[in-house]
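Recap quiz, item 2
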Amino acid sequence: DAKTTQPPSMDCAEGRAANLPCNHSTISGNEYVYWYRQIHSQGPQYIIHGLKNNETNEMASLIITEDRKSSTLILPHATLRDTAVYYCIVRVRGSARQLTFGSGTQLTVLP
Amino acid sequence: SQTIHQWPATLVQPVGSPLSLECTVEGTSNPNLYWYRQAAGRGLQLLFYSVGIGQISSEVPQNLSASRPQDRQFILSSKKLLLSDSGFYLCAWTPQGPGNQPQHFGDGTRLSIL
């Protein structure tokens, strides 16, 4: 699976949009981009995933560049409860194997 | 709806003692099941995964083993715990078959070895 690179930490003001970047320059054509988050001492929570089109759900939006080498997770109106470590992961479609979690981005939403 | 349960939530064990952590999934059949470990301040490391009863794949050599005695039950075990086995253990599942379904995680077991 392709390796991902994320900034180690970011701050965001409460009520503003949080934009979390991820680089996956070695992604292959059959690999999806997944985003998870982990609040301290809890299991990771699935947020969203996509292949090449932008995706939106009730939690967030995922913007994938045309060359698929990077993506951005957007939390449109961040709240204090969105403070967590956010992981960007790529995985081959249909793979039963692992999600390879890196070190992620610690997002801190400030009041 | 599907749910995943892990227990216990926390566990303190002495070095050399045995271990058994259990994970069960409800509301689905024939899921893919996974055990991960997360050391403090680090990302998740896949330990084992299973695509069916009795089918276990190990990702890293270690002091742990896994078993899947029933379709929706996944057990992580050790005969003799080491200090290095301390960590946060997470179970996860996905539906079987091709596709891009995300993994869903349990709440984890925090294991401390003394």
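Chain B is about 0% helix and 55% strand.
The two ends of chain B are 38 Å apart (CA to CA).
End of item.
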